[in-house]
Amino acid sequence: MSSVRIDDILNRVENIEIDFCRWLNSGSRRKAIRVFFKAVSDLGDGVFWYTLLLFLPYVNGVIGFIQMLHVLVTAVIALLIYKGLKKNLVRERPFIHYATIKQAAPALDRYSFPSGHTLHAFLFSILFSFYLPQIGPLVWLFTILVSLSRVILGLHYVSDVIAGALIGSGLAVISLDLVLP
Hints:
Layout: H1 3-26, H2 31-53, H3 55-60, H4 62-89, H5 94-97, H6 116-131, H7 136-152, H8 158-179
Helix pairs in contact: 2-6, 2-7, 4-6, 6-7, 6-8
């Protein structure tokens, strides 16, 4: 396959992604949708996850403190990886690059790749589903909403969200593999 054909394929994929981002972002023009997904995004910035951490010792007793430490250490490692990627990959947010994508919530920084909200949502959902399986459906529903919110609010491309999901999932699985007998 020639490089021209590969470039054509990549351009088509990019155009499909941008069209999908525009379509999702168009929902933010409705106030109810914008307010809802901004609230979800704000909760996904850590409030929801760190509140849930307090339930580990409450539900699982002394072992819950060890589980809480495991989740916290994994989250810090994820944060360091996320910050390193953002600093080095410097992909502009979609609302910066495309005038047709509207920023519907404040961005935490200038760059979009990968989605840190999504990365952490997947990481926490896997770990909480393992340690507190009774809340699995709740955390996964919230994770889906957080992931959608990032594109709907014009803050991320779909590929940023997919990358965040893959990185967060990978880190969670690796961390479980390292701490479990």
